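Quick one before lunch.
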Amino acid sequence: MFIDTHCHLEDENFSVDRAEVLKRAKLAGVEAIINFGSTLQSSIAVAELAKNFSELYAGVGIHPEEIDAFDEKTCAKLAELATDKKVIAIGEIGLDYHWEKDSQRRMIQQKVFIEQLDLARQLNLPVCVHDRDAHGDTLKILQTEAKNLRGVLHCYSGSLETAREVWKLGWFIGVDGPLTFKNSAKLPEVVKAAPRDMILIETDAPYLAPVPFRGKRNEPAYVVEVAKKLAEVRVETLEEIAAYTTANAKNLYKIS
Ligand code: NI
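Model of the nickel (II) ion complex:
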């Protein structure tokens, strides 16, 4: 059995056939799926979905590209959503310097990131972090502002050196479709070196479909393709990958 630890099934791409997508996930052996919000609206939507389907869980948070909507009221609303049992994480939050080049606005991203880390600490919830082209500042913030917090750098794209620092903090790396791409760069080297108890698998659906579905809409059933590639790179069996990545997800997100 597998757990897709990061996706976005509230996305309108799934509005027509969401039930079919969930059925295919179950058939593929995906026993649980965690959807993450990126705005207040999508956070409300993923929390609602989790209420309606037993295999779905939710994370709530404001994505670094959506920081303009973040204020005290938003923060209070996220906290209110998190009182639901099926809301098990804060995310996705973090830094995105790929789309944001302005240094002033990057500072605001950092501030909003740190405020949501504080929220996670108050609520005693794990954190799912988005880090795109911001590895240095993300690591610095985790080292200084994430005391007593646990979490994952989702869709990990940093160096092995950075990954080792992340593991030192007891944080996980999330691996998805890009591992199966021909141009996966340093990712195979990173996952090969990763301790068993520091890896999660995910799809980030509807984005980043793994080979052989690359370019198509992604969905949770395809997390198996990520697991297969992980098995190949780490020279382990698919059963081993399934067993420990599922145990890791249950451990981090306290899913029973
Ligand atoms: Ni995502």
